[in-house]
Design goal:
By secondary structure, the protein is an all-alpha fold. It has nine helices and no strands. It folds into two domains: about 50 residues, Arc Repressor Mutant, subunit A (Orthogonal Bundle); about 140 residues.
């Protein structure tokens, strides 16, 4: 009998299988490169049929969009839960959410894959942005063409990547969290940019 307060056995088994396939793919991408790895390679290494792989991940790109898509969706969900929250507080909530719910193995594998395939990671971010239009995520009325504001958005994204890298590598501390948050605050105040800095641009 399935308990009413959690997923049933079938759902848990599907989630475990999906996670196993994802981790296998990320490991192969890190070891052999994105272009050098096929769906058949992933299926063989994961000990499943190729159609099982594509049942969970229809294309290879879906493996590398997993992390940025999940992160962007969580950011948007936090914003929609309380649209009145200011930018720096939203970043703080988003970062704490990552630290509280991090899958360390997946973060480590994603980091290794990203280092081995930097061009694919950029492609994945563009794809995530393309797949999630119309989210009403604010750009705070900033001028998307202004070079100074564009520099501010790029700087904030850079700080966020440093935060995520430090979390994935197990180097994040409360002190570093606060220091990076203060850096975000300084950039946002100086360049007059905010929420939209964390949404992937096309």
């Amino acid at each position: 009998m399935t308990a009413g307060n959690g997923p049933g056995l079938r759902e848990r088994n599907k989630a475990r299988r999906r996670r196993h396939i994802l981790h296998t793919a990320l490991r192969l991408f890190a070891e052999h490169g994105y272009e050098g790895t096929t769906i058949a390679d992933i299926a063989e290494a994961a000990d499943v049929a190729p159609r099982t792989v594509t049942g969970y991940f229809p294309s290879k790109l879906d493996f590398v969009t997993e992390w940025p898509a999940e992160r962007e969706q969580r950011l948007i969900a936090l914003h929609h839960a309380d649209p009145s929250v200011d930018f720096v507080e939203l970043v703080d909530k988003w970062w704490r959410d990552l630290r509280d719910h991090l899958d360390h193995e997946e973060a480590t594998l994603t980091r290794a894959m990203a280092l081995a395939n930097p061009g694919v990671v950029a492609l994945a971010e563009v794809e995530v942005s393309r797949r999630t239009p119309g989210t009403d995520f604010p750009f705070d009325g900033t001028d998307q063409e202004d070079p100074f504001e564009a520099a501010g958005r790029a700087a904030i994204r850079g700080v966020n990547r440093s935060f995520e890298r430090s979390v994935a590598e197990g180097r994040m501390t409360d002190r570093l969290h606060e220091d990076l948050l203060n850096l975000i605050r300084s950039i946002a105040e100086r360049t007059r940019v905010g929420h939209g800095s964390l949404k992937f641009e096309r």
